Amino acid sequence: MRLKCPTTFRIIRLPCTGKIDVIHLMRAFEKGADGAFVVGCMEGDCHFNTGNFRARKRVAQVAKILDEIGVGGERVKMFNLSSGEGPLFAEYSIEMDKKIRELGPSPIGTALRKKASAA
Amino acid sequence: MIIADKKPIEEIISGISGYKKILLLGCNECVTVCEAGGKKEVEVLASALRMHFIKEGKECHIDERTLERQCDHEYLEEIRDVVDQYDAILSLACGVGVQFAAEKYHSTPLLPGVNTVCLGANEQRGMWTERCQACGNCVLAETGGICPISRCAKRVLNGPCGGSSNGKCEINKDLDCAWQLIIDRLRDLGKLDDYEKLAPIKDWSTDRAGGPRTVVREDVQV
Questions:
Q1: B200 vs chain A: nearest CA distance in angstroms?
Q2: Helices assigned H by DSSP within B57-202
Q3: Per residue in A10-39, pLDDT tens?
Q4: CB contact A73 to B (< 8 Å)
Q5: Nearest CA in chain B to A26
Q6: How far, in Å, CA of A6 to CA of A100, rounded?
Q7: What is the value of ipTM here, to two decimals?
Q8: Bridge partners for B111 per DSSP
Q9: Cα–Cα distance between B61 and B53 in angstroms, integer?
Q10: How many whole angstroms separate alpha carbon A116 and alpha carbon A77?
Q11: What does DSSP assign to residue A14?
Q12: How far apart are the C-alpha atoms of A43 and B142, rounded to whole Å?
């Protein structure tokens, strides 16, 4: 399809979004990621029935924690689409990229870079 | 099992501020099952705390460890060789584990990371409900296996009281009246005659009224 999407993110493949745990997303932010978006199958279409519902709950848990520690829960979001919806994936990635740019760099990433340059 | 709930992160952060090196100590038993203080929760909380301190520009080293149990000497002894390296231990065990660790490591501040709530059951995914108050003198044989001490708001032993309406308790319309449940179960068991028997005044000395309790079993002591 040769769709255009931002080059600012990397894709981590999982067998199912139900495989995602809270700690996986937390570690991304701890390492300085400015945002993370989880893309799962359409609700009701999970091959494992509840994988994407579990992922949604876990994404919500991460958002809550990020809000509590002042990093910002808006930096993590879940999207749903079917595997045949490439254009929608590109659209969501552009939306997320735009959103993260509006929010600016993560305070964790900024602090880590500052620390690294001081060392 | 013992049911615990997570403490708000803000409360934990205010409790540990000032310490430079902290051991976050989880427990593999009850708090793991109720998803409040097991290995996973230790990882997530440690990550959140590290991010908080990085963001604030403060130096605080957080290590993670999860013991099989924190209410047994043998497992708590596993951290004896490292405990002096830490300014404080943040324990995600129940109140028993926190206290037992505090007794054992007298010179290290012990902070609780969870609120211990009750003795309960995993009624459904993500929902735990109280079933026992450890009164020390079980009456379940007389009450159809349903506890009037933990499940009746008034701990009524010859119920129901006047606050029972349509099978629900007056304190909350979603709360089953324990005595309604007892009567229904006794009826199903064909033991409704048991309901007519008056329960004698309960000996509360085995409950908290008698002070902290101890069980001594000389037959298993070595």
A1: 49
A2: 73-76, 95-104, 148-151, 178-188, 192-196
A3: 999 999 999 999 999 999 999 999 999 999
A4: no
A5: B47
A6: 12
A7: 0.94
A8: B90
A9: 9
A10: 29
A11: -
A12: 48
